[in-house]
Amino acid sequence: MSDETTAGENWQLRAEAAEAALERAQAEAQARIIRAELKAEAVKAGMVDLDGLKLIDAEALRVNEQGEVEDAPAVLTKLKRTKPWLFGGGRSSSAAASAPRPEPPRQRMATEMSRDEWLQARAALLKRR
Prior knowledge:
The chain is an all-alpha fold.
């Protein structure tokens, strides 16, 4: 009977340890989500140095059912109002830039062409005359 009791207690201890490990893993995952969301919002808000995120109490923020951090934009807006020197001109560095203008096609020199290419180019030029 004592073997059954110890086996039952051992099983219960293992279950409690597994539940504690699961809670720790969930807390770490939520902390990572909060940090990632704060970084994304900070970049959107124009934060110059992400070390300024250390001024935010991340433990006060919570992840909602949809996996989004509640009040992250509001917290960064408040930080921007109280410590504006941490933020740049408000433009995100991750904004898409316009594409560079294409270079106009340049004429190839005869020395850059193979003999066949040169003959084709010569024939096309003579046709235009």
